Amino acid sequence: MQSPPVVAVVGATGAAGGTLLRVLEDRLFPIGDFRAFASARSAGALVRFRDHDVPVAEVDDAGLAGADIVFFAAGANTSRRFAPVVAAGGGVAVDKSSAYRLDPAVPLVVPEVNAEALDRQTGIVANPNCVTIPLAVVLAPLHSRFGLRHLTVATYQAASGGGRALAAELGQQERDDAYGRPPRKEVYPHVLHGNVVPGGWSMVGDETEEEVKVTAEFRRVLDLAELSIAVTTVRVPVAVGHSAAVWVEFDNAVEADEARRILSKAPGVLVVDDPATQQYPTPRAVAGSDEVHVGRIRADRSRENGLALFLAADNLRKGAATNAVQVAELLLC
């Protein structure tokens, strides 16, 4: 790999790609040469990166030649088509889509949790989805101490997790409601403003596609193939920031104070836990942050060795872009 590396972003004009560019800037990621790619529809546009307007090209095999690290933020089909091209050319594709998350030949990596999985990468590294990442960051250190037995999760997922168009539609619905106009729904099957929707994803039997993803990916990241998990995914009228209420049953006895101490030392975690003074994680507070906020840590007396907690993370940053850049940072080590 060249030093500093040749870096490319596929999907540079989208919401995920734009956040990725900001994170690369914020973290001062070393770059020798930079390339921006998108679909034919967006080719010719400009993206701002490190005080320069960078022209966006249509992604193709020739454009990816010689790239050392390529971030994919353009959907599973694009990743399936072009990530192998990057790997065959000697580079590494860091994929943020769902294309390779459950491929046993491709490591699924959360750097704070299973960085050692990168030792077996052969040119493609997958990133988990925006719910799995914060769950793993918070629960992995507790699992190491107490042993996870069962996990129940209810998510509260921001509109931006459904893409830039849904976030824009939420904003328009808010304006429509404020002016007494019937809010329109074109991107999402429900009016999201003033609403909470336990669905909106494709269904896989009686589970949403998102619930199936979180279950399978979390088990893979923590290497707990048989872990008992129940997940309900919910879309909420928040622009940025996924949250989750979590109930955990452990193999060993756990005290809330001890869990709090462990989490206060865990990488990537910020404990915000003083409910008496109204201090706890919220999506508004975590927006723009690369840490997972966790609080409301307390005993769950309804189950043996039980613990309850609440977490929040910026789904566009730590839930996606920051995790990918952290992976790339490890590749340079």
UniProtKB/TrEMBL annotation:
Residues 6-121 form the Semialdehyde dehydrogenase NAD-binding domain. Keywords: Amino-acid biosynthesis, Diaminopimelate biosynthesis, Lysine biosynthesis, Methionine biosynthesis, NADP, Oxidoreductase, Threonine biosynthesis. GO terms for molecular function: aspartate-semialdehyde dehydrogenase activity; NAD binding; NADP binding; protein dimerization activity. InterPro entries: Asp_semialdehyde_DH_beta (IPR005986), NAD(P)-bd_dom_sf (IPR036291), Semialdehyde_DH_NAD-bd (IPR000534), Semialdhyde_DH_dimer_dom (IPR012280). The keyword Transit peptide does not apply. GO terms for biological process: diaminopimelate biosynthetic process; isoleucine biosynthetic process; lysine biosynthetic process via diaminopimelate; methionine biosynthetic process; threonine biosynthetic process. The active site is at 130 (acyl-thioester intermediate), 242 (proton acceptor). It is an enzyme of class 1 (oxidoreductase). Its EC number is 1.2.1.11. It catalyses: L-aspartate 4-semialdehyde + phosphate + NADP(+) = 4-phospho-L-aspartate + NADPH + H(+). Homodimer. Belongs to the aspartate-semialdehyde dehydrogenase family. This is Aspartate-semialdehyde dehydrogenase.
